[in-house]
Amino acid sequence: MPLKLLTDAELTAFEAGRDIAAELEESVRQMLAGETFAVPLPPVVAARAKTGLSQAAFSALLGVSVGTLQAWEHGRRNPSKAAQTLLRIANDTPEILRKYAL
Fold it and tell me: What residue stretches are annotated with the HTH cro/C1-type domain (predicted)?
């Protein structure tokens, strides 16, 4: 599910209520205490990363524009069923797609 984009007014209100220094201090405290956690990559990003290809090379291989790939990676759009199949192949056997990289 894509994230809800904030309006300019909502973003301004959110930023005005933040205490960046306190947020950074809390982050450092968590790191020092070993309270870190990994944030999983979106599936499209993970599949591309496994191939080791740039966005330009990966999008060319899939036959889509870089903008389309970026929209998938940021969750603004969903890949077609055919593209989802290629992404599963890239995730499961990246060497297969690398073999056909332009």
Answer: 44-80
Residue found by looking up tokens 């990289």 in the block:
101
The burial of 63, by beta-carbon neighbours within 10 Å (0-12 exposed, 13-18 middle, 19 or more buried), is given as exposed
Q: In the predicted model, is pLDDT for residue 28 greater than 80?
A: yes
Number of H helices, E strands in the chain: 7, 0
Which residues have a Cβ under 8 Å from the Cβ of 61 and sit 6 or more positions away?
53, 97, 100, 101, 102
- The pLDDT of residue 1: 54
The whole domain housing 58 covers: 43-99
This model's pTM is above 0.70:
no
Domain tally, the chain:
1
CA atoms in the 13 A half-sphere facing the CB of 4: 5
Reference 86, options 47, 32, 39; nearest CA is: 47
Kind and range of the H or E element at 12? helix 8-16
